[in-house]
Design goal:
This protein is α/β, with parallel strands linked by helices and 327 residues long. Helix content is 45%, strand content 16%. It is elongated. The chain starts with a helix and ends in a 5-residue tail after the last strand.
Amino acid sequence: MGSMKDVANLAGVSISTVSRVLNKHYRVDDATRQRVEEAIRTINYRPNLMAQGLRSKVSNIIGLVVPHLMNESFMFFVNHIEKYARQRGYILVIGNTEDQPETEEQFIDSLIRRHVDGIIFSRVSDKSRVLRLIDSANIPVVSIDRILEQEKIAAVTLDNRKAGRMAAEYLIGLGHRDIATVTGPLDIGLCRDRYLGFCEGLAAQGVRFDQDRLFEGTFYFESGIAAVSRFWSQKTFPTAIFAQNDLMALGVMKELLQRGIKIPQQVSVMGFDNIPAGSMIVPALTTVAQPYEDMARVAVDLLVNDNGQTPKRHVKFDPSLIIRETT
């Protein structure tokens, strides 16, 4: 493998011109750029990216930290953020905190010390302990999905309160009055927002929410099963169940069917996230969708375009209703 000097000699240019081509500098004419690129291919030159980063103080690396990679919502975010980061010339380093505040803190600290160009992250919960690290990082940081109620950095999220209201209003419109909900952990802001919006939607239609119809889950399949078992033990059973993610809704459906309850003839079920499995099962799951790709694109744009001088932006996206066969 040749050196930068070899490339310069073969192309008939200076070493500084080769450097400008490698760094995609605009002050190189097309003919010269083509000669240099051909020389690079001919001698199979591979620049030392770490050395370039040390000289330029730019790593072309973005850190992405999420609470759980096995959660399909975060799988969508990872996929789309990687695509848009790559289009902007960045490599993505991914951290999976497994819902542990200590792991989140360690990973973000490691990314900062490795001089990444920016960080996109979704907080574990209210227990997140990274505010001090972020304040002292001196690099762009964007919070996505699980953000603080009074977020002080750039943030991208769904209008979760609106989504909760949308779910309640839709189920009431079908004639339901006894509606239960299976939330995610209520120490996560978006879970509280979905729940508050849900209660607001009921109240706006004159429907009082019974606290016995609240089951705080974990976002996992098993929570849906446990919720149905809890509601089954009560004197009456709800006619509709709204779960704050599709995975829990699938657990609800499994347990209802095992108990001989027909969906939607006896009980309507509604999920959240619009994961692929929801459209594959029978009956197909009615759900609330969020625009993962648009949210990912905006998060990358906010991060890459942040020059430290612009006001921090909070971007909130609207949910959409996907009506299928479970309601």
